[in-house]
Amino acid sequence: MKIEQRIIISNVFNVGLMVLIGVLAYQALNLMLTKLRFVEIADDLNASFLEMRLSEKNFFLYKDPKALSDIKEKIKAAQATVYLERYDIARAVGQGNLGRMSRNIGDYSKAIDEAMKSCPPGGTCEAALRARGKDLREFSETITRLERARVGDIISASKTAMLFFLIVIILSAIAVSHKVSQDIVRSLRKIEGLAKSIAGGNFHQIEKAESDDELDSVIEAVNSMSAELKNREEELLQSKKLASMGILTAGVAHEITNPVNNISMIAQTYAEVYDSMDRRDRIEFMKKVELEADRIRDIVKNLLNFSKPKKADLKESDINDVIRDSMKLVQNMLDINKIEVKLDLKKKLPPVFIDEPQIQQVLVNLIVNAAQAMPEGGWLNISSKFDKEKGQVRICVSDTGMGIPPEYIPHVFDPFFSTKGVGGTGLGLSVSYGIIKNHNGSIRVDSGIGTGTTFVVEFPANWKSEVLN
């Protein structure tokens, strides 16, 4: 059965129970109102009957004939009330009790008539009158008391019934919602597992339950998608390989063309002027060939580092020492380019787990890039600090160079992307990005035209060591 049908049936069941509660409550309320109406009538009659009994005592004590006339008038009024309210009284106490009340009033009326003719003190008429008055009074009080009790019983029963049906509705809603939610969660977990499996490259199928609900339709669709992805996996992988090979081939061809052309030109010139050169000139020509060959070797090495990054040999290190060692490698270049260096290295930083040669490679690349962005000289600022909130050691490398255009910033870590024209391979930052990611770190750039560039590198701090500030 479909989930929608289950919910509809559950709602219909609950609505049916609520309608039943409403009908029962209406009937109980109607009966209660009828009985309350009778109690009001009975209270008035009881008050009238009490007055009759008082008038009856006055007659026997003081021989006041007017007392019997008053009783007679009150009896007529009571009979009129009973007649007018006979339907409500009958609904409340039943036709039998209505008849009995009418008979008691009639008997009392007859006893009054007999007393009005002649009723000596202590005679039979006096006893009959007292007996009929007592029966009428007691019956009226008894039935009124019973009806009051019945009103209380109706209210109590109505409360119990409503509470019972309310509990049934709540339990029904909980049971149905629990069953539906369990079915949904169970199927969603299957779909979640398949989605994670697909993300990991494993395109298996989910077993369908024989419930024929909406989630089974979703599972069937996901299974179909998984099968289709599995069928196209090889095609997608092949396309991805071809695209990567295209990028690598284009980059290699572009970068190697210049040194190869230079070697070719040197070789041609060397052949033409060989006879006129002495040994020193020939050596100089060969050194030029060697330099161009080194350039080609560096390009290939960078390609290998990019395509097959080495696993980092991590060990606990002081990042400030790594920065100082890196500065030693590039200090001469910075001096030649008239670049002033400002180091702001915070003391007692927590250690980090890094491969020092690889991080030196990253720092040297960032420093060389900064120097090339300041051909007329400038300032290079290198700082380190500990971010307690993130638990990371941060390195900032900032220059006062020309900056990077905003549209280039999203691509600076892409392979073979360079802002240096023919002077760059476009692989340095890509290799650096891969190294930092292998260290579970992050690298980002912030730059503006004419305001310089800042690279921020962050590493997780080693929390097993004591951190001093």
Describe this protein's structure.
With about 475 residues, this protein is α+β, with helices and mostly antiparallel strands. It folds into three domains: about 5-175, Four Helix Bundle (Hemerythrin (Met), subunit A) (Up-down Bundle); about 215-305, Helix Hairpins, CATH 1.10.287; about 315-460, Heat Shock Protein 90, CATH 3.30.565.10. Helices cover about 70% and strands about 10% of the residues. A five-stranded mixed sheet has the order 2-4-5-7-6, covered by helices on one side. It has a two-stranded antiparallel sheet with strand order 1-3. Strand 6 (about 440-450) and strand 7 form a beta hairpin. Helix 1 runs antiparallel to helix 5 (about 125-200). The protein starts with a helix and ends in a 9-residue tail after the last strand. Residues about 235-245 and about 465-469 have low confidence and may be disordered.
